[in-house]
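Technical annex, item 7. During the second reporting period the consortium partners agreed on a shared format for inverse folding records so that results from different sites could be compared directly. Each record opens with the tokenized structure and is followed by the designed sequence. A conforming record, contributed by the partner at site C, is shown below for reference.
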């Protein structure tokens, strides 16, 4: 039996190694020339420590003063982000043939541009926290929201990823939002345009497509999909607006699906639960699904 297992493992190994020679995407073995997902997770953690310094604490940092702490974190994030961006740039046709020194130089420029957006990101997140606190009577304080709300975590990671996406950096923004997706069940594409005072309540199962545009003071409940109407065109649709536009002061309740790049939900509208929409809605409109008829059969003893 021992020889049978050993021989079988050897045979299976030979088959797999031979299969790896077909030069498909799945056969790539160059693990050292692509971004490291674990490092990117650490970058998210440290960005949260910079953005929310009183809430995400690393005991390894000596907090003699806030300047020293922020300086240490900023240097750490910058160093690691430069390395990851220089690797990611090779997945962009524009940079795929650049030598290491050129990629590193470009990565440094993009990293500095991103880091200079931190104060803007904090400004936007402050409005998101305000929207959650004012919109959720179950919240006891803003501290509770920052510490525990999955919606805020997903929005924060999206806002980091979105700024990197705008700089034309491949892979890293999507890895970031997928980290948040796996942690919270909230799937926000980094290409989506989301304004201030964004409120995700509960959050699980929310999907926001890459060409979605969302105005200010928009509230989404769990299970909402802002998606594409059809993907039959495949790659030909990649540069086309496929996802809806949600104007200011719109509330979308749980289970609603709003699809299509030409679909616009006018400002101050309410979209009820389980609504399926593929056409635009004028401003100040309430859309709701007709209640299903419920039957109740009371058990009676024979």
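Designed sequence (site C submission):
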């Amino acid at each position: 039996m021992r020889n049978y297992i050993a021989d079988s493992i050897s045979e299976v190994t030979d088959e797999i190694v031979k299969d790896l020679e077909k030069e498909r995407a799945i056969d790539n073995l160059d693990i050292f020339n692509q971004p490291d997902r674990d490092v990117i997770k650490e970058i998210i953690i440290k960005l949260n420590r910079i953005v929310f310094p009183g809430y995400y604490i690393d005991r390894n940092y000596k907090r003699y003063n806030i300047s020293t702490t922020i300086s240490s974190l900023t240097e750490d994030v910058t160093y690691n982000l430069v390395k990851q961006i220089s690797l990611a740039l090779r997945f962009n046709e524009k940079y795929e043939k650049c030598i290491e020194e050129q990629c590193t130089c470009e990565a440094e420029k993009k990293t500095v541009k991103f880091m200079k957006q931190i104060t803007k990101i904090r400004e936007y997140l402050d409005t998101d926290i305000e929207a959650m606190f004012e919109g959720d009577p179950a919240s006891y304080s803003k501290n509770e929201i920052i510490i525990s709300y999955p919606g805020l975590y997903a929005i924060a990671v999206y806002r980091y990823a979105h700024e990197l996406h705008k700089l034309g950096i491949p892979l890293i923004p999507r890895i970031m939002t997928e980290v948040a997706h796996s942690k919270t069940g909230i799937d926000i594409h980094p290409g989506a345009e989301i304004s201030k005072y964004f409120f995700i309540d509960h959050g699980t199962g929310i999907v926001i497509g890459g060409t979605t545009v969302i105005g200010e003071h928009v509230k989404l409940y769990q299970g909402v999909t802002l998606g594409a109407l059809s993907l039959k065109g495949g790659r030909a649709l990649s540069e086309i607006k496929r996802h809806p536009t949600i104007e200011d002061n719109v509330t979308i309740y749980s289970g609603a699906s709003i699809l299509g790049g030409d679909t616009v939900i006018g400002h101050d509208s309410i979209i009820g639960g389980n609504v399926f929409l593929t056409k635009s809605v004028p401003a100040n409109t309430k859309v709701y699904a007709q209640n299903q008829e419920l039957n109740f059969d009371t058990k009676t003893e024979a």
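The chain has a mean pLDDT of 91. The two ends are 64 Å apart (CA to CA). All partners now use this format for quarterly exchanges.
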